[in-house]
Amino acid sequence: MTSGRPGSSGAAATPEPGAGGSRGRRLVPAYLATGGRERPKGMADFDRLTVLVSTDQPPPELEFGPEHRRLWALLRPGALTVVECAAHLGLPVSATVFLAADLVGGGHLLARSPVPKAEEIDRTLIERLLVGLRALP
């Protein structure tokens, strides 16, 4: 873990306005982080395991809300999945997808699809390979 993430320094983190977490109920409902939209802007095919990485773009401007800036700051030292970001921010995954889509659209984050599950290897191919290797002089 890096020192920029909540809870990683060992010191008590100062709660941010509207932040959730284990200290109690959020003061600001999570749906307000989405701006009341039904669908995220731009890229909407995020998965829970989509990896988010911050770019070299300067911090999000004032057009983004505090939740956007918290997400961007969370990703400054490295990469996290959408579900990990949601856990750190104390937001539902669906609301985090909205924030991430906005920041990807603004060029502040990059999103990478999760690594696909490896396909099962054809056993007959391996057996034929072994037969071929044993046949070598």
Describe this structure in words.
The chain has 137 residues and is an alpha+beta fold. The protein is built from four helices and three strands; from the N terminus they run βαβααβα. It has a three-stranded antiparallel β-sheet.
SSE diagram, text form:
Layout: E1 51-54, H1 66-74, E2 79-81, H2 82-89, H3 93-105, E3 109-112, H4 123-135
Antiparallel strand pairs: 1-2, 1-3
Task: State the gist of this model.
With 137 residues, the chain is α+β, with helices and mostly antiparallel strands. The chain is 31% helix and 8% strand.
Order of helices and strands: EHEHHEH
Strand content: 5-15%
- What's the tally of helices? 4
Helix vs. strand class: alpha+beta
Characterize the biggest β-sheet: 3 strands, antiparallel
Radius of gyration: 21 Å
Question: Tell me, what's the shape?
Answer: elongated
Distance between the termini: 53 Å
Helix content: 25-40%
Mean pLDDT metric: 77
Main β-sheet, spatial strand arrangement: 2-1-3
